[in-house]
């Protein structure tokens, strides 16, 4: 049975750090499995390792079927699952503003986040095998969002300066509350350490 991890919230310093390359692949298949489970549970389309407290260059993403039946589990709508280890975006073109949210910034969205429309990403799969994927549209957006997490960048930082200010001002209270929860979580975790 896969494990569901707690998701780190805005304010947690790990979300602002550049993650380290994955060298030991022995833990990756199980880790990826648990990250998928965590992502489904949170009804997300992608999840990066720093979001579960691991500073590793790894993220998972899913493509879902559009139609949703009443009460249907998200998992049963999966069309494709991806595990990206040590990804590098090699080529990117076109620019499009679009809607984004983040599991680490729950409930807050912007529909003005600029992203490339098409990209090519080189990466390793969960077993360390080299892979290349060309993506466009929504999947390309998800990849860029998750890739940013590996470099400590959050989606609102991609907004043009005036919109970024607006986002931060409009959501100041919610963001402050997340920072408080993030600090509390870290304090609790620290208290658990022997
Ligand atoms: Zn995110």
Notable features of this structure?
single chain; 194 residues; 4 helices; 30% helix; binds zinc ion
Task: Walk me through the structure.
With 194 residues, this protein is of the alpha+beta class. Helices cover 30% and strands 26% of the residues. The chain has helices at residues 28-41, 137-150, 161-170, 172-192; strands at residues 46-48, 58-64, 78-93, 96-100, 110-115, 118-124, 130-136. The chain has a five-stranded antiparallel beta sheet, sandwiched between helices. Strands 4-5 form a two-stranded antiparallel ribbon. The radius of gyration is 17 Å and the shape is globular. The model has no long low-confidence stretch (mean pLDDT 95). The chain binds zinc ion. Zinc ion binds next to helix 2.
């Amino acid at each position: 049975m896969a494990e569901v991890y707690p998701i780190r919230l805005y304010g947690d310093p790990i979300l602002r750090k550049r993650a380290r390359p994955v060298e030991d692949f022995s833990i990756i298949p199980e880790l990826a499995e648990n990250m998928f489970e965590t992502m489904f549970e949170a009804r997300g389309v992608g999840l990066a390792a720093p979001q579960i407290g691991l500073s590793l260059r790894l993220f998972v993403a899913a493509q879902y079927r559009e139609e949703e039946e009443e009460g249907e589990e998200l998992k049963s709508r999966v069309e494709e699952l991806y595990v990206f280890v040590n990804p590098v975006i090699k080529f990117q073109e076109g620019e499009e503003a679009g809607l984004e949210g983040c599991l680490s910034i729950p409930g807050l969205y912007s529909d003005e986040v600029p992203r490339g429309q098409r990209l090519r990403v080189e990466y390793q799969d969960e077993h360390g095998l080299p892979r290349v994927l060309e993506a466009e549209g929504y999947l390309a957006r998800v990849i860029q969002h998750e890739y940013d997490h590996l470099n400590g960048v959050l989606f609102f930082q991609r907004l043009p300066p005036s919109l970024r200010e607006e986002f931060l001002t409009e959501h100041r209270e919610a963001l402050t509350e997340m920072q408080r929860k993030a600090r509390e979580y870290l304090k609790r975790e620290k208290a658990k350490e022997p």
